[in-house]
Amino acid sequence: MGNLLEHMGIERDRLHFSWISSAEATKFVDVVKEISDKVRALGSNKKFEKDYN
Amino acid sequence: MDTCIEKIRELSADLLEKGEVTKVIGFANGTIPMATSPIAIKTKQDVDKLVFNSTCGLNLANYVSGEKGKIAVIAKGCDSRNIVTHIVENQIQREQIYIIGVPCTGMVDKHKIAALFEDEIIDFSEDGDTLMVSSLLNTQTLKKQDYLKDNCLYCTHKNPVLYDVLAKDPVEEQKFDNLFPDVDRIEALDEDAKWQHFENLTKNCIRCYACRNACPLCYCPTCFVDESGPQWVGKGQNKTDVNTFHFLRAFHCAGRCTDCGACVEACPMGINVRDFTRKLNKDSLELFGWEAGLDVTKRPPLDTYRPEDPDDFIK
Amino acid sequence: MKFISIDKNDWTRGIDKSREKYQLFGPVKDENGCLIKKLEPDVQPDMGLHESVMSAKSVIFPQTEKILNASLDESIENHHIMQRAKTDYSPRAVLGIRPYDAKAMELVKLNFDTKDFKDPYWCDAYEATVFVGLGITKPGPFDFSTSVGTGPFCEDGLDVLLADLDDTYLAKILSPKGEAYTAACGFNAIVDEKESQALFDILRKEAEKNIVSQVKIDKLKEKTILELHEADFWDDIAFACINCGTCTYVCPTCWCFDIQDETKQKQASRFRNWDTCMSPLFTRHATGHNPRGTKVQRVRQRFMHKLKYFLDKYDQGIMCVGCGRCVKSCPVNIDIREVCHMMNSYEKQD
Q: What confidence tens digit (pLDDT) does each residue in B224-269 have?
């Protein structure tokens, strides 16, 4: 999936997979932080935004 | 191409006469140049309608599912691989289908040939590796090898992988160091250029869904684009919706696509629909060592789990 | 009737001049074939031999058309009330189309512009459009237009008909709209009417002679709907069909559409999209019941509508102008000429 998105020209950092146990609260926080930082750096994805006009 | 049509007719007549099958699914001559049409032959008298030539680019596996009795089908290498996929996915039982395998020397690309002419083609014939094509203004003799469909150029399974009988001797298979130079070319682009490539590809798409409907893999009772509760994707010509359809359909074919090229064959707008599926075929091969439709005992990689499956994408 | 001679050297300058008052549409060829598109300021219509894959119907009836708008913002007046979308209905001209594409518009008009109901979107676009046809001198192998009462120089529905005379176009002005358009181009070299008409007649006869494809439609009228409906050939015709929408979308006379609502933030829009009777979704009821649930029913519907229901309802011939686009584009080569022949010659076996 990630490979296909990348192939289409969607930045790879928009898709993340992670394996987190319910006991790993710290890992969850770290992963979410990392993801949101990366996506924020990329900005909003205009490629799949629909233009109605 | 040695069309071996006499042998195909003979085998078909025999099956129908003995009542072993209720019908034989094959190709009939079209009403226009460079066209053939799928047909179901039900009586021995009709077997003369069957033809096989370099314009049989559609995939007949698309016509075998949902059958109740036993049927026979004429299968090229790719058709046979999709029959295997059908069997694996329980669309048809092996006992229900008698496969008349035809080792294939490739199908011609109608768009490539049409592009050589300023006006419409009025006549097409072939003799071995030579094609004779004429329009009102012009006649050309072409080498078949130069005008093969792109998927046929890189075909490594010309011979049927599953059959009950072969209509002629197997042909030599091709070998390549790199099966995916077309994917490499796209991969070499930067992000925006990649996106642009696909936007250009679909700019003339009319969403007739010929690609989907010609594809033997697309047998869902209701396709996600037709579903209205919930509605996953808009139904109009908005390019976001058009691209969503193409990318998601491609993803649904991941690890199942045999690269038969029926989607490209069917597209009235000349879109190279395979550009969407090829990347997934490449990944299937590189990540899972998998080519679809070669073995009725193996399920496609996205259907199964093996401990050694690559998982470096999970952080 | 007025005839004008247009020097091909003046053609581009003329139509560029018309862009001041008209939006232009016309055939544009790219690597995948020829389509009728809106012409951007730097794009010229392709007046060559290429036959456009799609007809000119999208100029009047776009594949996706926004028809209504509403705001979902409750703080403003008239929120949630649908209002007609703003569409540019300033004059437009579609250039270089095959003549019978305009005839197709006349047939479609019977449905969109009736005594009781007028489709405002279609009618306004039709009203705004000048149809400039280019006579077909070299009909393709799929063209069976003469059999269905149109032809390569058919004038019905056109405002201007051009004949290609190598160095010049001879233009036959067929309506006041056509007159206004040629004036806006600055084309004004009036030529002798009698001579020009004679030339047109020669070209038309020559082109008609080159049409190799014929169908017979003479007996369709006398057949009963039920006997054709129950004929034994439909299963065989439909077998190859993959139920894509190609035939209906390339057809200049297919007019069916579907309505879709979409919202984005506080903006709601209602669109209409081309629909196709080949799709199971076309007739599926909200209950899940589908009166045309099988492929063979849908294939039969398309041909019965074109070749029988329309004929019986309007008595204006069949709903086909003989362009042959569906014959050429059908992925599995289902040929309306063959189906027409089967229907026309069908005799019920007792």
A: 999 888 889 999 999 999 999 999 999 999 999 999 999 999 999 9
Contact B136, B195 (CB under 8 A): no
A50 touches chain C (CB under 8 A): yes
State the residue for tokens 């990318």.
B247
Residue B180 CB partners (closer than 8 Å, separation 6+): B154, B278, B281, B282
How many C-alpha atoms does B93 have within 13 Å on its Cβ side?
5
- Taken in order C163, C168, C170, C171, the sign of the CA dihedral is positive
pLDDT at C285 over 80: yes
Cβ-based burial of C225 (10 A; exposed 0-12, middle 13-18, buried ≥19): exposed
C147: closest CA of chain A, how far (Å)? 43
- Whose tokens are 């296909």? That residue is A4
Task: Tell me the pLDDT band of B276, cut-offs 50, 70 and 90.
Answer: very high
Cβ distance C130 to C91 under 8 Å?
A: yes
Distance, in Å, from the CA atom of B270 to the CA atom of B258, rounded to the nearest integer, reads: 20
Half-sphere exposure of residue A37, counting CA atoms within 13 Å on the CB side?
Answer: 6
Contact: B213, C244; criterion CB under 8 Å: yes
Residue environment code for C228-258, b if the CB has 16+ CB neighbours within 10 A, otherwise e: beebeebeebbbbbbbbbbbbbbbbbbbebe
Q: What is the pLDDT of residues C45-98, one digit of tens each?
A: 999 867 889 999 999 999 999 999 999 999 999 999 999 999 999 999 999 999
Share of chain B above pLDDT 70, in %: 99
ipTM of the complex: 0.93
Report field, pTM of the whole predicted structure over 0.90 = yes
CB atoms B265 and C35 under 8 Å: no
Enumerate the domain spans of chain B. 1-106+157-176, 177-315
Quick check: B243 and B254 in contact, CB under 8 A?
no
What percent of chain B stands above pLDDT 90? 86
> Cα dihedral sign for A52, C247, B133, B75?
positive
Q: Collect all residues with Cβ–Cβ distance below 8 Å to B151 and sequence separation of at least 6.
A: B78, B259, B260, B261, B264, B274
Q: State the sign of the Cα–Cα–Cα–Cα dihedral B151, B152, B157, B162.
A: positive
Q: Show which subunits contact B, needing at least 3 CB pairs below 8 angstroms.
A: A, C
